[in-house]
Amino acid sequence: MKLARDTWLVFQRQVLLMVRTPVWLVVGVVQPLFYLLLFAPLLKQVLGAGSYEEAYRIYVPGLLAVLVIFGGLFTGFSLLGELRAGIIERSRVTPVSRLALLLGRALREVLALMVQAVIITLLALPFGLSVAPLDLLLAYLLMALLALMTSAISYGIALLVRSDAALAPVVNTVAQPIALLSGVLLPLALAPQWLRSIAEWNPFYWAVEGMRALFAGQVGDSSVWQSLLIVSVLTVVAVWWSARLFAERVR
Prior knowledge:
Layout: H1 2-19, H2 23-38, H3 43-47, H4 52-73, H5 76-85, H6 87-92, H7 98-124, H8 133-161, H9 164-180, H10 193-199, H11 203-215, H12 222-249
């Protein structure tokens, strides 16, 4: 109970700070919107889709995954800023749980990414996207787990490198191959077999496949439960690893 209460207190504080600077919402939505408007319409011919609705059902889940991958992995910069300002150090002398200090911040990032995901989904509806509400909610659950995992990983990397100048290239080096091997722009079913074999070791590939199955209304597809299982386990591992680093390295 104490962990839940402390996490909620930290989360509330972080959300309040986020609401005071709403520019994050505009910045987070503009770039995905460009892809939605300028890239997605080309996919009907490229994918051989029968309609724009089918094309958007394939592309929008990948776009949301990109949002989570890059949005989540770059959240470590906010932690570095708080470390330099002494905010984390002051928080550690309070009776608040150390894990709650991390979880509250990570859940703030999850909320921000989910708000952006809902906006992108709503903007795609006039272009022909159609998805059942329950399937969409399950896809959002998968997205939220991904966001928590990437945020925890980003915090862990930030605690290891302790430098803005080092964090950016490290995150870019990690994020780019992960995104490309997830099939976020185009399904990897179009790729050669050797590339698909490599992609199968990438948990984000399974997450994207699961989300695409849900957007297509195939909730019983094996990729759905496989993606939920893989992402859930890795999220727990990522949070545990990041929390351990937080306890060891934040003084």
